[in-house]
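User: Quick one: structure for sequence A, then sequence B.

Assistant: Sequence A:
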Amino acid sequence: MKTKFAWIVAVALMSSVASAEDAKVGLVDMQRALQTTEAGKKARAQLEKEFKATKAQFDAEKASIEKLGEEFKKQSLVLSDEARAKKQAEVQERIMKFQEKAARSQQEIQNKERQLTGPMIEKIRAIVAELAKQKGYSVVLEKGEANVLFSLEKDDLTADVVTAFNKQNKG
């Protein structure tokens, strides 16, 4: 049974290698496409604007916690064990609340980013499919540092995708 399966896999691989000569593979850097389209730039600016005030609050809270920690270090030598433990618990509780709030805020940012970029990704995928058909590509892969180690510049469709996206989404 294993031998038969291995033989089927080998035949499938050989046939795919034979047809690979006819295959044309394209690449698209989705992250770069999202960041360089006009809609992507607007989405990034909107995110930055919405969370600028939140960042300022976090920066102020962080500075306040750091100041509290420094005060605790200075006072810890003169405080009684009970007072030191109480003050340390207060500092720790404030740090935990800050970390929880930061995690919630990060989740909100990610959700908002998905809301803004989700529709753009769908449009980009449709454009990629159309461009691939027009240019005769059999397969289009996502180009990224972890995914594609080498590619010819002529097979990178990212600039064409950005141009087509911007043309379709004017206004």
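Sequence B:
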Amino acid sequence: MKYIILLIAFLLVPQLAQAQEIKWMTMNEALEAQKKNPKKIFMDVYTVWCGPCKLLDRNTFTNKDVINYLNKNFYSVKFNAEGTEEVTYKGFTYTNPRYQEGRKGRNGTHQFTSALKVTGYPSLAYFDEKGNFIQAVAGYRTPQQLEIFLKMMATDDYKKLTTTEAWNEYQKNFKGTFQ
């Protein structure tokens, strides 16, 4: 009996670990998913050489509160700002014609990155339920720092924050719950 329980536990552990990951997809997949089930899109715009991007992956995107909130409220997209993925957005296909295969370090900037006016990495971009671009916020965030942005976007509170004073008041009154 002891061995059966151990065997069952051994078989279930990988499934439980997998359940605690962000369900990353491509931008094209997220836009397609929105057609069936409208949800906002959260996009991690990163580069392979970016140290803070790696910290975001290791420290923030492994946090159970972040994982649960993103999986419930957003389609989460991982987008390499210097990669080769083709993105079809608003009737235009974005590519990276300046990409150089095998290049170490920085590479050509993807056209979609430029279209979003993202110039710093990591940047966290948000899109509404119809795929319209809302905003990109540059910089590394801890789970607790990211929480205010996720909840502000998910609840549409961002629509009310039209002044610096309103944003400052929102931050002051925000009560975070992420551990």
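Residues 2-19 form the longest helix (18 residues). DSSP finds seven helices and seven strands in the chain.

User: Thanks, that's what I needed.
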